């Protein structure tokens, strides 16, 4: 388990990371289970560490003091921080079959989030239907950068599978054929030679 859902919607969810300053990497494929089985699939689109707004934040006396030094000297202040990540829903299970569409309902609050294993990533990414969902504008990070980060992450998890990467690039080219600037941004970012 890497986090717990603290906000949920039709398009995705926000989860609090179990480890401060360590959200899952941008583009990571994650899952949420229902009744002990994988059910929802999502891609991490954003991560941040900030002060927990529900608690009173104590300001540092001098702005030049680095955070690490403050928290080493005053570890109780670390409790004021939280690391959260957002994930875009890209699939779900329907009677045992994985569908790469938005699910009929978002995952409930307080459900646990898990990283998909390399085998699960390979199985989920055999098809590219979900790329369209990732190209929808994200709130904080440009959609093409989210897609590029996801493709790079999957490429690595699939053992640097050049055949898969070429197929993914062809799919992206088809999706972005009318937007040359966005297409080139993604293709440049996923090129393993760069």
Describe the protein.
The model is unreliable at 55-66 (pLDDT under 50). The two termini are 33 Å apart. With 194 residues, the chain is α+β, with helices and mostly antiparallel strands. The longest helix has 15 residues, at 143-157. It is built from six helices and seven strands. The radius of gyration is 18 Å and the shape is globular.
Regions with little confidence, pLDDT below 50 for 5+ residues? 55-66
- Terminal Cα span: 33 Å
Sequence of strands across the biggest β-sheet:
1-2-5-4-3-7
The ordered string of helix (H) and strand (E) elements is EEEEHEEEHHHHH
Helix content: 25-40%
Please report the number of helical segments: 6
Number of strands: 7
Mean pLDDT: 89
Overall 3D shape:
globular
Using only C-alpha atoms, the radius of gyration works out to 18 Å
Residue share in β-strands: 25-35%
Class derived from helix and strand content: alpha+beta
From the structure above, extract its key features.
alpha+beta, six-stranded antiparallel beta barrel
Could you write a compact summary of the structure shown?
This protein is an alpha+beta fold and 194 residues long. It has six helices and seven strands.
What is the fold's blueprint, element by element?
Elements: E1 3-8, E2 12-17, E3 29-34, E4 37-51, H1 67-73, E5 81-94, E6 97-99, E7 112-115, H2 118-124, H3 131-134, H4 143-157, H5 162-175, H6 180-190
Antiparallel strand pairs: 1-2, 1-7, 2-5, 3-4, 3-7, 4-5, 5-6
Helix pairs in contact: 4-6, 5-6
């Amino acid at each position: 388990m890497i986090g717990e859902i603290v906000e949920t919607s039709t398009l995705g969810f926000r989860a609090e990371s179990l480890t401060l300053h360590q959200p899952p990497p941008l583009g990571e494929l994650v899952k949420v289970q229902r009744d002990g089985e994988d059910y929802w699939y999502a891609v991490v689109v954003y991560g941040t560490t900030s002060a927990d707004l529900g608690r009173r934040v104590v300001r540092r006396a001098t702005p030049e003091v680095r955070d690490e030094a403050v928290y080493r000297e005053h570890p109780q202040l670390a409790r004021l921080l939280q690391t959260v990540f957002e994930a875009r829903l890209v699939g779900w299970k329907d009677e045992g079959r994985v569908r790469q569409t938005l699910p009929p309902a978002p995952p409930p609050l307080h459900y646990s989030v898990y990283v998909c294993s390399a085998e699960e990533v390979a199985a989920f990414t055999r098809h590219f239907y979900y790329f369209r969902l990732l190209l929808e504008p994200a709130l904080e990070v440009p959609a093409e950068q989210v897609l590029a980060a996801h493709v790079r992450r999957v490429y690595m998890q699939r053992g640097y599978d050049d055949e898969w990467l070429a197929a993914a690039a062809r799919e992206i080219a088809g999706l972005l054929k009318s937007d040359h600037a966005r297409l080139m941004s993604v293709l440049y970012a996923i090129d393993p030679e760069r």
